[in-house]
Structure formats: C-alpha cells, structure tokens
Amino acid sequence: MAQVEFRGLGKTFADGTPALQELDVTVADGELLVIVGPSGCGKSTILRLLAGFESASRGDILIDGRSVLAQPPQERDIAMVFQNYALYPHMSVRDNLAFPLRMAKRPRAVIDKQVHAVAEVLDLKELLRKKPSELSGGQSQRVAMGRALVREPKVFLLDEPLSNLDPRLRGQVRAEIAALQRRLNSTMIYVTHDQVEAMTLGHRVAVLNKGELQQIGAPQTLYDQPCNRFVAGFLGSPPMNLCEAQLYRHRGDVAVRLGDDSLAPPARLRQALQRYRGNTVLLGMRPEALTLGSGEGGNTISVTCLAEERLGHERLLHAAAPSTTVDCNGVPQSPGILSIRLPSGPAMPAGTTVSLRVDVERLYCFTPIGKAIGRLADEPPNGFETDS
Amino acid sequence: MIDSGATWRQLLAVVGLLTFLSILFVAPIVLILAGSLKPEARVLSEAGTLRAFFPTRVSLQNYRDVFERVPVVLYLFNSGLINGLIVSLGLIVNSLAGYALARLRWPGRGRFLLLVLALLIIPFEALSVPLFYALSALGLRDTYMVQVLPFVANPLAIYLFYSFFLSLPAELEEAAQLDGAGPLRTFVVIIVPNAKPAFATVAIVMLLFHWGMYLWPLLMTAGESVRPLPLGIASFYSLPPRQWGDILAFSIIMVLPVLLLFMIFQRAFVRGVASSGVKG
Description:
The complex is a heterodimer. By secondary structure, chain A is an alpha+beta fold. In chain A, 23% of the residues lie in helices and 32% in strands. Chain A contains nine helices and 22 strands. In chain A, the strands form five sheets. Chain A has a six-stranded mixed beta sheet with strand order 6-7-8-3-9-10, sandwiched between helices. In chain A, α2 crosses α3 (108-121) and α2 packs parallel to α4 (137-149). In chain A, 43% of the residues are buried. Chain B has two domains: 5-59, no CATH class; 69-275, Orthogonal Bundle (MetI-like fold). The longest helix of chain B has 32 residues, at 5-36. Chain B is globular. The relative contact order of chain B is 0.14. Residues 275-280 of chain B have low confidence and may be disordered.
C-alpha cells in the first residue's frame, strides 16, 4: 500500500487540447479517493497518467515519495480495473488471475495459493475453469477485481468499473468494493461520472471539470459546502436548483427576491451578501430544502406544478421556476424547472399552484461567475479526511 | 421465414443461380479429375461429350506415369518448403509490422502506412526485373532463398493484420502491461492468441498467391533441384510424348495439397472467428 502524490500534474494532448490543468492532490495510504466529473473532464487522463499509458506534459507523480514518471507501466506496481474489464478472452478465469503472478515469475505453488485465496474472497471458485465469454457482467467484474488484487499492488485504479452493470447489480458491487477496500486497507483511486458512486464510496471525493480540480473533500462536506456552482449542481440527484435572484435592501438588511417572492437569507450569509446588494446572484436550493406549506417570516414561494414522479416512498415534483434557472455549467435552462423532493402524498395535477416553504438555513448563494458566497468553512488542507 | 408462394419462387431462383455458379466453378476441376483417371485414349475422344465429366473406366495409370517420368516428389517438396517458409516467415514479419503500425507510436508511422497501401497496387511483374538484378548480384540464383525472400514481407498481409489489430481493444494490451508483460511478450501471449482469424486469413491469402508462382522461379532458377511444381508441370507439358491424361494427373497432384490445406485453414478460420470473444 502506498501514498500517491500528484504535484502540479498537467497534460496537453499533441493537438493542443488541454486535458488536465495543474493537479495537486495527495492520496493517503489506505485511502479511497473518488474522482468524479462529466465525460471529458480529464478524470480518466489522471488514471492513465498514473498507470503510465500517457506521458505527463507538466508536473510529477510520486508513489511513496518517489517519482514514477520515468518508469514504464509494468514497473509502477499498479493494478487497474478497466471499464470493459479487459479480461484475456483466450484464458480461463484461473489463467486470468494467475497471469500477473506468472509475469512476476512467482513459484507455481505460490501462484496456486494466491489464486485460490483471491477466488475464495471474491467467490470465484466455481468459475475458475470458465472463459470470460461464459461469464455474466457481474462475474466478469469480480474476475477483473481479482486479477487486480492477486499480486497485492501498491495502488489500485478503478476506471468506471460499474458502468457496464445493470443498476440493481451496481448497488451490490458498490457495497462489495467498499467492504473489500476496508478489509484490505488499500490505496484506491476510483474514477466515475456517477455522483451516487462518488458519494457512497469515497473517503474523499475530487470533483473535476474541464481538466480542472473544482473541490476535494469528504463527500458530505462537498454536498453541504460546495465551493462553486459546478460542484453544487453536479453532486446530488436531482441536482441543486440554481435560480437567478436579486439582492435588495430591506429594513437596513439584505433580502433576496426570487420571482415575486421574498426570502430572508440565513444569518451565516448576511454579512457576505451585503457586498452584492443590488446585484443578481444565483440562489441554490437543494430539492429537499423545499417543503409544502407556508412558512414563518414569509419565506415561501408560489410555484405551478408541471409534473410529478412518484417513487413509492417519496415523490419528485417538477414545478415552473419563479425565475431563470441555470445548470451546473451556468447554461440557462428553458423552461426553468424547480425540482422538489416530497414525501409521498395525494396526487398533484399539473397546473396546480402550490406554496413551498423554503428552509433558508439551507440556502446557497453564488456569484454570477459561480463562486460560492459566504461558505461555512474553507476546505480543510489537502489531507486524508473522512466522515467516519 | 418462408410463408408464401412468392418467397418460395425467390428462394428457388436464388438456389438455381447459386447451383449454376457452383457448377461453373467446379466443372473444370471435375473435368481434370475425371480426365486424370481415364485411359489416355479416352481423354481426348470423350472430351467434347458429357462423358468428359465422368471417368467411364477408372485407372491410376496416368498417376503412375507421372511419378515415373518426372521427379514429382522433388517438385512437391520444393513447393512445400518454399511456400511453408513464405507463409511461416510471412506470418511473423507481417504480423509484427501490422502491430507496430496499429499500436506503437513512432515518427513516420502515418507515411509508412501510406507507403504500404501504395505498394498494394504495384504488380510484382513490374518489380521482377530490378529484383532479378539485385538478387543475382547477391549470388542467390538457383536457391530456395531467392524464391522465399522477396515474398515474406507482403503489403496486403501487413494491411490485413493492421486492420485486425486496430479492432482489438487497446485495454487488453494495457492490462497486460500493468500485469508486468513487456511489448513483445504482450504481443506473443495476448495479441497472437486473439488474432487467430487474422493469422488464418493471411496464411490462406499468402499460400494462394504463391503456390502457383511461375514467372519468378523461371527467372531465378535453372536446374530442377530447387524448382517448384508450376515449373515442373510446364516442363512436363513440353516433354514428348504429350499425354493429356498424364498432364491432367499432374494438375491434380499440384492442386490437391493446397486444396487440403485450404480446407484445414478454413476450419481454423471459422473456429477462430467463433471463439474470438474479444469483447472481454
């Protein structure tokens, strides 16, 4: 197991396309870091740079304090689980598992013992004679994990390992990976575009956009204290509602006008919002920060229902937003829709006007360029920090 | 699904056309086989009739004659050796070249690929005279090597391998690299076993190209000792007395090995395609 350090790491492709800006992150020994972001944000490039499949344009990568940039992939002692598993089609499961050990010229008895041990852990004993073409998606995934585990590498890389599985299996395998990581206490870097995987698996989550690290921290910290519009809008399902709102002077203080309604900002934001009085800002509201009914102090908004998704234990209400809404990239949405997470209840036909109480303590404000205003706390220094 | 008269008629038309084409292609071979099994007197007398396709009295005399009159075994050995070397060396050289073009990064790769493609359209006859001078100057005339060397590297084979390797997922090689295999080992242990269809195809193509090779051995060899079957049959043709039954028997001897090999390779080819679960 090992510590991985990215120091000012950058990559620009030969055609001039920037893939990764300066990345400065340290992954602690035994940590599971999830890198999350939309397609093309550079997250797989980080893995490929670390594995040695791509050469870095700038910066350095250190494993246990030693630069590995000059080493070919086979000398870096890294194992990787690929998105399509990349099992060797002509070899049985046993041979797939034994391949890394054979390459390392381990004695036959050791190979047999380790293959057996990994097969035991991952419940692969029944599959050892089968070829990859005879395996289901979940089984292939386990074999790919097994091949990575078998030679006990310093670092595990997982490149969207669950994206080829059906949603039901995905949850199960996610739990298995988390349990395995805890048991082995291994350093893992896990890349995904699925924010649910990021939130549930990572000790820390790094959010990446357009090759630039947006924020890194414990999943709940990122969810509760996003540093910018992108992180706020990317994490969470459905994502945070981002509506344009005006700040105005109200009885010597500052208030927020959202459409025709007024909201009193929480005490933690008031000081910071004074600077932006008279300006338009982006107001962020999580779908669960809105509830049915009118609240005290006028912190309510009126919206018209557009559609309702009933999920059994809860329902998602989609309503016409009182002002222009934008997505995590700041692109205006047309039509602007407000998502509200509500407990299950009587049906709400389209066209109904409802009052929603806004939990103002859970309001977020972002500048027009998307920077969070008055965050609770700045990010902890770049170190290993978990919720547990 | 066949469920109407119209579909039946369509099917009948297709089967009829395919049967006609099959007869067209198979008829000459049947004619040669039937002729080779007939006594000499009947070969020409029955040539214009339908009986030309059926051996009315089976005799192996023509085959005996051929083996007595010319060193067929030597010709067979020469052809087998020359083609065996061309195909086996060709598979190694061309697959490595195709792999280097498809996967390795090196300066001038794109231009080299263009050059390979351009070579596809140059007929061998155009190259034979300069090659004749070059290889004669090296003192290689009248050898097996001179009949092998110019044909080992083959642009069509390189291109076939190149296209196949491009279709293999790159992650297979990357996984092997991380598992500790160097580039050559990755090629031998991971790529080659998954490229059986490409190897079978190239082997068939190269063998068919060179088994009937005539001009080059004629230019480069003088004595019988290193000459292949096509030159043997040519000299046999001009050897008096000209016996058509013997010539037909020699033709069958020449066709048979490549036909057998083709059938074996074809099976390997189908098996290769069926078992190449490169999807992962």
